[in-house]
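COMPLEX REQUEST
Ligand: coenzyme A
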Amino acid sequence: MITIDTLKEKYIDELCEIENASFSNAWAKESFISEMSNPTSVFFVALKGGEVAGCVAMNNALGEGFISKLMVSKKSRRQGIGFMLLERLCEYAEHNAMFALTLEVRESNAPAVALYEKAGFKNLGKRKNFYRNPKEDAVIMTKKFTKEFTNENISD
Ligand SMILES: CC(C)(COP(=O)(O)OP(=O)(O)OC[C@H]1O[C@@H](n2cnc3c(N)ncnc32)[C@H](O)[C@@H]1OP(=O)(O)O)[C@@H](O)C(=O)NCCC(=O)NCCS
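STATUS: Structure written out below.
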């Protein structure tokens, strides 16, 4: 069974292992620690059989969310966990009257692009040479939750 929790210190070592195996520019442990005290951070962790299987994170900038992390451990991929995490984040965004969720993804990252498309994100365009190591363009993807961005979208 998969359950979803918010970020806790006890998950950070396992998150670092998944992070190092997933990204060429991996976050340091301190980055996960600082997310716990960042008031704009919304961070969900997927647990499978007591183990950390993945996570999704975003920063809520006055009603617009920027996804900063989405990853699933290699052994837990293709089991719907990435989609479940993204759905949880979209539910949070809707319940908190957020305007939209936006992210950048490597152009060559077909699994992630397909996942975001399945979750209803649209391709907005590219950022040239956004990534290093290796150098690559980013695709910008977004999902809107309200038609207009007004002050009413901003939650306290
Ligand atoms: C991208 C990632 C999070 C997907 O997680 P996942 O749990 O394996 O994804 P899911 O099982 O929920 O798949 C949901 C959908 O995503 C797409 N998808 C996922 N993996 C795919 C793959 N290897 N090839 C093609 N499509 C894929 C499919 O549309 C899939 O739907 P389907 O099962 O009905 O075909 C995972 O591959 C990962 O952690 N990659 C490394 C980190 C990364 O690139 N993060 C994104 C940074 S922007």
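REMARKS: The pocket of coenzyme A is lined by residues 22, 70-72, 77-83, 103, 105, 109-112, 114-115, 118 (CB under 6 Å). The mean pLDDT is 94.
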